[in-house]
């Protein structure tokens, strides 16, 4: 009898939490008919008219979209306690964590409920939370933010990326402000198509290399480019790598692809430079250390170090010849 009561109590608790969770995430949950189509795409907010934005009164300069997963609480905590604090200093900058929620256990939903109540910065998508759905996660997130927010730029990064928010916003507000269609990051144009491993690509038929794309550790899209993706979401192909997908989606457009060596966003970090705007592959411990160094010295690095050569992208040659690493590039 006790077990029965306990079971009923647990069901009731989960139901209450799910209700709260649903209320909190009314504007954060997307439904999709299947993983490859946006047909029948509907916002969970049924009372809102289609031609108005949910946050019409807010105008953000920069929205930071951090791709995370349900189990990566330590990474989200580290970001909230380090570089996201720099984002909070600017009321026109907002940071969200994007998580796939489909198929999560009731216990995991409860954990995320508590996390959202405390921080109000989670954005759940109705897709399984695995590598094969990263492109879907990014596409749905871009569609949602374009549909419901007013903003100038979106910065997409991973939850193991450290973002120097003040420097990013300073660049966007000064030197890059007049560029209407901006795609900003560290580009690659000679990457071979992955035929094995977790990034195995079975759908890529365009050519024998990936089209030029900004590497996924962090890149910036201006609002007109996000709007293009939003308008064409039904017809966009989804590839295994989200950064490759974004590059392919934008490939026909006459836009500014701004290659910047200050984006340390490759699959391996090139080291530490005080000039970096984003640096990838950082553990929570690394995040705290970099932030402490930045707070105490005004610099990212206790000591600058160069682990790998970088390259300047040559847009005047075929993509296979674009990216020659050499020692003359400082970082």
UniProtKB/TrEMBL annotation:
**InterPro entries on file:** Glyco_trans_31
Topological category with respect to the lipid bilayer: Single-pass type II membrane protein
Which processes are annotated in GO (biological process)?
A: glycosaminoglycan biosynthetic process; protein O-linked glycosylation
Q: Name one GO molecular function term.
A: galactosylxylosylprotein 3-beta-galactosyltransferase activity
Give the principal location in a single coarse category: Golgi
- List its EC numbers: 2.4.1.-
Subcellular location per the Swiss-Prot or TrEMBL entry: Golgi apparatus membrane
- Which metal ions or organic cofactors does this protein require, according to UniProt? Mn(2+)
Transferase keyword on record: yes
- List keywords of the entry alphabetically: Glycoprotein, Glycosyltransferase, Golgi apparatus, Manganese, Membrane, Signal-anchor, Transferase, Transmembrane, Transmembrane helix
Pathway recorded for this protein: Glycan metabolism; chondroitin sulfate biosynthesis; Glycan metabolism; heparan sulfate biosynthesis
Q: Which sequence ranges are marked TM in the entry? A: 12-30
Spell out the GO cellular component terms annotated for this protein, sorted alphabetically and separated by semicolons.
Golgi membrane
In the UniProt record, the signal sequence range is none
The lineage's top-level taxon is Eukaryota
Instruction: Name the family.
Output: Belongs to the glycosyltransferase 31 family.
The name this protein goes by in its record: Hexosyltransferase
In which organism is this protein found? Clastoptera arizonana
